[in-house]
Amino acid sequence: MSLVLFNDLTRKKEKFIPIKEGHVSFYSCGPTVYDYFHVGNARPFIVFDVLRRWLEHSGYKVTFVQNFTDIDDKMIHRAHKENITVKELAEKFISEYNKDAEALGIRKPDVSPRATEHIPEIINTIEKIIANGHAYVSEGDVYFDIQSWPKYGSLCKQNLEDLEAGARVDPTEKKKDPLDFALWKAEKPGEPSWESPWGKGRPGWHIECSAMSSKYLGENIDIHSGGVDLMFPHHENEAAQSEAASNNGKPFVNYWLHNGFLLIDSEKMSKSLGNFLTARAAIEKYPPLALRFFMLSAHYRSPINFTPEGLEQAAAGVMRLRNCKIDLDFASHTRKNNKSDFDINKFESELNELDKKFAEAMDDDFNTAAAMGILFDVVYLINTSLKEHEFLPEEFFESSLKALNTYDEILGVIGSDDSESENDDESKEIEKLISERTEARKNKNFARSDEIRNLLKARGIVLEDTPQGTKWKREL
């Protein structure tokens, strides 16, 4: 089965065929860096990180671009509130974004462009739109002319009359149509501004992504992703202005992908409802990989309800996956015996069948929910083999570890355990204490044995005594 993706432009699944064979150009909307990103933002960052990984695993060379919006109304208002510059605010929260993204296992983009570093490209794009007859200047502002673009509304699947009925117009705006949107905003007192052919000012929000994606990926790109809340107006406007600028008759994006809403207690998260939660707050309360696991446990296009119970179940799921890897590593040192009568051919055949099912799930509009279920089938197969056989051949450990590492490279929900690091100073100290505890138990010095167990437990280290020795793992 080849990869199929649900394309929001056509509202159906389509076989993925890249513009350039073997290569994928992929643009994903990044954060507006005026605050810590919230758990709703975390969902697209995580799920499209997994799509990128799957494309790479499937043999594509992926160029992944995710921007930082570092100039807009929210940035300006927050900077004024904190009495710092917009640039200082951006530097602070780009740094904080990188910390939280790393904790959640989100790989860095190939390019992370900032809007303020691409003003010449933005101005050039606007000039093209004006020259092609799709924008006009109004008292220092520049607006996209909706009436000049018959395709407007094709992404969100609404006609102009319906969109105009819900449009709100700022009385300070001087535009022909309520839906006309700003490409360039004239300078206002106290706001950052740049020189332009239309006077000093700053870019509108939508034009930033068009200029940056065009610079790094070209005028026509394979995949553009983001939350469903961005479909209108942001992505609708991006598509209109990008195609109006290129004027080459080709679509701006071949495959538009949007993830479903994150709900909190079955309601859409919003500051007005008081159910707003930052990713930073979530990962201080729950293990970061549990949050990642949770986001991948539902199909990306479906809404998902964020609850404490769901996060606790996700944490238990991560622990089960990690325990399998720990047990496998421990057994490889204590129970490896190539004279075992274990049927390695049957085991590897079952692994291969599960691998095919995993690939089918991921190729079917990257169904991570189904893929995660198959990962647990793999864990069950490994755990059953460990339980039912005292000794196992070397091939069993090699194949099992390879499977777990491959799935983790794609999904990123297992991670590593400190007990796997032989060179880590803390690991050596823990191993020394475990050895001391083992000796104390031999000598029936149970007081010292319990003291060491409690000392390690206070440090988040859990011990498990087995016939082959003592295993340890770090609590999530």
Explain briefly what this protein structure is.
The chain has 476 residues and is of the alpha/beta class. The chain has 15 helices and 15 strands.
Could you outline the blueprint of secondary structure elements for this entry?
Elements: E1 4-7, E2 12-15, E3 23-28, H1 39-57, E4 61-66, H2 73-82, H3 86-103, H4 119-131, E5 135-138, E6 141-144, H5 160-165, E7 182-186, E8 201-203, H6 205-217, E9 221-227, H7 231-246, E10 253-259, E11 262-264, E12 267-268, H8 279-285, H9 288-296, E13 304-306, H10 308-334, H11 344-363, H12 368-388, H13 394-411, H14 425-442, H15 446-458, E14 461-466, E15 469-474
Parallel strand pairs: 3-4, 3-9, 9-10, 11-13
Antiparallel strand pairs: 1-2, 5-6, 6-7, 7-8, 11-12, 14-15
Helix pairs in contact: 2-3, 4-6, 4-7, 6-7, 9-10, 10-12, 10-13, 11-12, 11-13, 12-13, 14-15
